[in-house]
Specification:
Length: 93
């Protein structure tokens, strides 16, 4: 990572970056890339992938209808309905 690359990335990302800060950004990015290299060097071939770092289970409720069907009551207020469906004008040809 060099100054020219950082300046080009900042320009592409539309980020204002003072020339005085370029060296600091270069150093920080180099540290990040070194950390990524260290993490890539760890052997993970015998580990199972996890969907979450904590072994949590999502408790889901039963899918039970709690409200009565009021379709006919609601469609009484609609001027355009037929066989339980709302009739709307065609928009796309």
């Amino acid at each position: 990572m060099d100054k020219e690359t950082v300046s080009k990335i900042a320009n592409l990302a539309n980020i204002e970056l003072d020339d005085s800060k370029v060296n600091e950004v270069v150093n920080n990015l180099e540290k990040i890339l070194k950390l990524v290299d260290e993490m890539n060097s760890v052997d993970t071939s015998n580990l199972n992938p996890m969907s979450h770092p904590l072994n949590l289970k999502q408790e889901l409720r039963d899918d039970i209808v709690l409200e009565p069907n009021q379709r006919e009551l609601f469609q009484e207020n609609s001027p355009n309905s037929h066989d339980g469906y709302y009739i709307v004008p065609k928009i796309i040809d």
